[in-house]
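RECORD TYPE: inverse folding
INPUT: structure tokens
STRUCTURE:
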């Protein structure tokens, strides 16, 4: 019997016992499906983390005003510290080696955003020129804010795609006028949508589709701010390429501790550390899910071995006849190995489809990004085939070792 004939015989044997074959394949299907879905979720989470880190800036250190403090705590802190301010930005540039620039950011509390009879809800930020480069923002049309806008306290704005659609419909927003609270702004640019809101390590970035940017100097002059709040919400510190972010963060913390007289009204965020933390968490997740999928594959392999051993007993007389007609032990061994391989291969293929479908269901229902890669498909298929072959070795060897005369007498 050649290999092609052995494969046809194996498929015929599986087709003759459809229910038994399907139940035997379940372990492979669940195992392969779990591996693909797990790796797809992991790859999607890693891509999301990388996109967030890209917006935060891998070479940046963020100085943020602490939020959600009680009013009495703020009153006590303000006796010692002004909060995160322009003074901090200047001190960081002058006192910390390797700092390229320090850019302030303010979030403005809004109660209305209007244009041409339409309104929208959006987050409004006062930022400095070049903020688009620091935060990896992409301008779809028009321009971003520049230094002249800051110096002249210009009433200009760059808006997100969804805000532009809400306010101006299908018309171009460029040159249009937007009223934020009681102040009118001219739209000079529109941002490309960066995707949905993302959170990593307690840091949340919203979608640029619902964001509006104005010059920070205009924000400080035109909009009132609670006296207990920090003058700034955030300072983005861009480091030179050869500077280690964690070492720079330690120097910045020491400097700000002195400037703030020990008041804990600020916090530092190091995107590089967030990325490493995300990868550690992802590795742990992959290990746990891999163990679960591995157990499922192991159970599937045991099921295949069990069925193949039962098949050996069921076909003992057939083995005796074949041996009497001149079949070698190698032919018998190959026949059962191919059957075992066929079970695992078919189960693996069905498992791939199940895994891809599960990944899409998770992405649609939970809102998690998933990425099915060729690596995950190759890995899961290879493991399932290997399990099938290993599971078939013992039954195949046992079938080949049967004595032909005893096999012919078997009933």
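DESIGNED SEQUENCE:
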């Amino acid at each position: 019997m050649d290999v092609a004939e052995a494969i046809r015989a194996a498929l015929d044997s599986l087709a003759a016992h459809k229910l038994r074959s399907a139940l035997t394949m379940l372990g492979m299907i669940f195992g392969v499906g779990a591996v693909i879905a797990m790796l797809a979720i992991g790859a999607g989470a890693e891509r999301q983390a990388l996109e967030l880190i890209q917006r935060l800036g891998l070479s940046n250190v963020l100085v943020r005003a602490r939020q959600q403090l009680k009013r009495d705590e703020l009153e006590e802190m303000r006796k010692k510290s002004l909060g995160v301010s322009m003074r901090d930005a200047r001190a960081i540039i002058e006192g910390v080696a390797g700092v390229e620039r320090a850019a302030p950011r303010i979030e403005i509390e809004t109660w209305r955003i209007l244009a041409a009879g339409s309104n929208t809800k959006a987050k409004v930020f006062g930022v400095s020129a070049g903020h688009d480069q620091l935060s990896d923002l992409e301008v779809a049309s028009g321009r971003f804010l520049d230094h002249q806008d800051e110096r002249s306290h210009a009433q200009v704005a760059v808006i997100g795609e969804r805000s532009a659609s809400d306010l101006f419909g299908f018309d171009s927003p460029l040159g249009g006028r937007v009223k934020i609270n009681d102040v009118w702004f001219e739209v000079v640019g529109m941002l490309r949508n960066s995707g949905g809101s993302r959170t990593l390590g307690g840091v949340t970035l919203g979608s640029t589709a619902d964001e509006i940017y104005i010059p920070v100097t205009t924000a400080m002059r035109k909009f009132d701010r609670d006296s207990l709040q920090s003058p700034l919400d955030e300072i983005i510190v861009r480091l030179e390429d050869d500077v280690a972010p964690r070492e720079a963060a330690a120097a910045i913390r020491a400097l700000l501790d002195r400037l703030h007289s020990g008041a804990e009204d600020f916090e530092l965020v190091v995107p590089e550390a967030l990325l490493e933390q995300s990868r550690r968490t992802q590795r742990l997740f992959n290990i746990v899910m891999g163990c679960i999928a591995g157990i499922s594959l192991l159970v599937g392999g045991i099921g295949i071995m069990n069925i193949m051993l039962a098949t050996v007993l069921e076909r003992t007389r057939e083995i005796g006849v074949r041996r009497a007609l001149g079949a070698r032990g190698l032919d018998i061994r190959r026949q059962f190995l191919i059957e075992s391989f066929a079970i695992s291969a078919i189960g693996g293929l069905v498992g791939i489809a199940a895994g891809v479908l599960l990944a899409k269901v998770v992405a649609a229902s939970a809102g998690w990004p998933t990425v099915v890669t060729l690596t995950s498909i190759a890995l899961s298929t290879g493991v399932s085939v290997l399990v099938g072959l290993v599971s078939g070795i013992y039954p195949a060897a046992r079938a080949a070792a049967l004595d032909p005369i005893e096999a012919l007498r078997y009933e």
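NOTES: The radius of gyration is 33 Å.
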